[in-house]
Amino acid sequence: QAMTQATISVETLGENAFEKCSSLASLTINTTVKTIGASAFFDCSNGTFTTISIPDSVTMIEKGAFQSCSALETVSGIPTITAIPEDLFKGCTKLSELSLFTDQSRINQFTSIGAGAFTDCSSLYIPTLDLSATTIGELSNNTFKNCDLSNIILPTTITALGVDCLRTTHKLNSVTFQEETGTMDTSMTYLRSVNT
Question: 139 near 116, Cβ under 8 Å?
């Protein structure tokens, strides 16, 4: 019988645990969970798998954990992660609500945002993403490619911006650099094809 619902209570959810579980419609992640492994829910594309809540007990999420969950619309809860892994929500085209970006104190703790983390999250509207208090050194390739990001404030620690990392779906109104920002590549390839 196909699995339609799951309750996760282990401390570490291993990689590929529910990969391509196309029948999964309902998911509960309990507060015992600390780590969500790589590709744990990769391509869980059931049309009714639209909402998940990640508790603050989660301190690590690995690469592509929710990649290609194409029906996912809402991710509530604010995990206590500092590193956003690559391809985390890549291909989640219907994702429109992400609680993690509503808590500035949590954003301030970010140390890295991986390549492709939000690629093709075309329904995700971010009016302003203030990274000024973070210690992020690089926005890697395609980080926010095809997201609806309007304004971004970069930290003084930023030294590199990858290709298409800010290639947004609509007009990118502003990219704010801090006065103390160090030496950077000035080729502007990170803005390639952006409608600015």
Answer: no
Q: How far apart are CA 162 and CA 113, in angstroms?
A: 11
Structure tokens at 9: 């209570």
Closest CA to 121 of 168, 164, 86: 168
CA distances in angstroms from 45 to 18, 126, 168, listed in the order given: 11, 24, 24
Comparing CA positions, the residue from 185, 137, 177, 135 lying closest to residue 154 is 177
pTM of the full structure? 0.90
Q: Each residue of 79-121: pLDDT tens digit?
A: 999 999 999 999 999 999 999 999 999 999 999 999 999 999 9
- The reported pLDDT for the residue numbered 106 is 94
CA atoms within 13 A on the CB side of 83: 14
End-to-end CA distance of the chain: 51
pLDDT of residue 190: 52
Residue type, 134: T
pLDDT of residue 119: 97
**Do 61 and 85 form a contact (C-beta atoms < 8 A)?**
yes
